[in-house]
Amino acid sequence: MYKQNQHYTRIAAIVIALTGAGASPVIAGDMEMKMGGIKIVSPKDGATISAMGENKMDYEIMLGSGDDHFHVWVDGERGGPIRDLKGSHTLPKMTPGKHAIIVKIVDKAHVPTGPEKSVFVKVE
Q1: Cβ–Cβ under 8 Å, residues 106 and 70
Q2: What is the pLDDT along the chain (124 residues), one digit of tens a residue?
Q3: How far apart are CA 77 and CA 75, in angstroms?
Q4: For domain 36-123, which architecture applies?
Q5: d(Cα 80, Cα 102) in Å, to the nearest integer?
Q6: Within 13 Å of residue 53, how many CA atoms lie on the same side as its CB?
Q7: Extents of the domains making up the chain
Q8: CB–CB of 37/61 below 8 Å?
Q9: Residue 37: how many CB atoms within 10 A of its CB?
Q10: Contact 92, 79 (CB under 8 A)
């Protein structure tokens, strides 16, 4: 019984340390709302896409506190601001090879607020 109580005391101490004394524990849903969320529906990570045609990225974005819009980065090049929270975005033409597509949520000054999501594609 003593070991079990000691275990629960340690867990309580960790919860208090992480949430602050007297603060209520943060649940995952609350944290997601504060931090925003990104879902890249397509292309999937590791997908092969065409170098010849127009390629689109389908997405769903949930803005959090302080978030204003998002940008799509392809191989380190930032695209313009996007404010539609769900839809399709036309990707720039890419040469054959491997490429990184990164979505970053930003504030009004275009400063990343934390949430970002990456997929890597192969262009043929």
Answers
A1: yes
A2: 444 444 444 544 444 444 444 444 444 444 444 568 999 999 999 999 999 989 999 999 999 999 999 999 999 999 999 999 999 999 999 999 999 999 999 999 999 998 999 999 999 9
A3: 6
A4: Sandwich (2.60)
A5: 13
A6: 5
A7: 1-35, 36-123
A8: yes
A9: 15
A10: yes
Q: Give whole-number Cα distances, 7 to 1, 18, 21, 83, in Å.
A: 10, 17, 19, 47
Alpha helices (H) along the chain: 2-19, 28-35
DSSP state of 82: B
For residue 32, which amino acid is it? E
Whose CA is closest to 74, among 52, 56, 53?
A: 56
> Is 63 in contact with 88 (CB distance < 8 Å)?
no
Pairing of strands 48-49, 77-78: unpaired
